[in-house]
Specification:
Blueprint: H1 12-27, H2 31-44, H3 49-59, E1 75-78, E2 95-98, H4 100-106, E3 132-134, E4 140-142, E5 144-145, E6 150-151, H5 153-162, H6 167-192, H7 198-210, H8 215-222, H9 232-239
Antiparallel strand pairs: 1-2, 3-4, 5-6
This protein binds zinc ion (ZN).
Amino acid sequence: MRTLLARPELSAAFLRRLAAKAALIERDPDKKGAAARIYASSRQAQWFKPVTDALKQMAGPGERCMICSGSESSQVEHFRPKAAFPLMAMVWANFLWICGICNQSKGDRFPPDTEDGELLIDPTNENVWDFFFVDQFGNLTERWRPDLNDIDPRAHITITIFSLDRDALQESRQLRLEDLKEKARDAINLLASGRISAADLRERISRWRLQPFQPDVTDYFLHGPGRLEEPFAELLDRAGR
Ligand SMILES: [Zn+2]
């Protein structure tokens, strides 16, 4: 998870079209069945394309999964699943753009409505770094909550439901962190020896942030709380950021 671009505003005409579909679901005695049917036919239809276009734009370069940041996304996710919340099946604010592994892992689960547990974290609406950190090895980890004397329960259930700590992902984050540290140290040395300018350094940092390789790790260390850790603190200081 990472900071995403703000949710774009869809046109009023398009939002009316979504609302009309939602009204059909609301009027149906079998709301769950209607939600599944109406969403499935809409998803296939050409008119629905502004939703996927806007979600891809929000996901950023490489269209990385909004949940794991690890893979290219291909699926519209209902943050509140349509099986449990049929009236949310056609609501723009309920749509995320995620990969098949995250989607399959979550399924129709949504605590506390479908099972015990805290509310999942919505990366389009919350600062994910209030809940997680990336440790010195690159692993996405739940924050400690001194007031609870426990790890953050929302971070924990989010990691569990989406399998955000799966081995391949953690390994990929570890490699990304090693790579970023190396890039940062090299750039600091180049600047110190006068071979690049502070402006070049800023340009490099911007480029790294656009690379579609575990952008969650990049976001944490170049934009989020990890910017206070070395070598990123020195890097950003020298870049004048
Ligand atoms: Zn994913």
